[in-house]
Amino acid sequence: MSEKEIVETGIYVRCSRTKPFS
């Protein structure tokens, strides 16, 4: 896992916690 992927995953997790896409 590259550093960029880790950053993007962290942003995705934060956004999905704020407003879940379910």
Mean pLDDT: 81
The string of secondary-structure elements, in order, is H
Shape: rod-shaped
How much helix is in the residues? over 70%
Largest β-sheet summary: none
Figure out the total of helices: 1
Q: Pick out the low-confidence regions.
A: none
Using the CA coordinates, give the radius of gyration. 9 Å
Quickly list its features.
single chain, 22 residues, mainly alpha, 0% strand, rod-shaped
Description:
With 22 residues, this protein is mainly alpha-helical. The chain is 73% helix and 0% strand. The protein is built from one helix and no strands. The protein has one helix at 3-18. The mean pLDDT is 81.
Write the layout of secondary structure elements.
Layout: H1 3-18
Task: Describe the structure concisely for a colleague.
The chain has 22 residues and is mainly α.
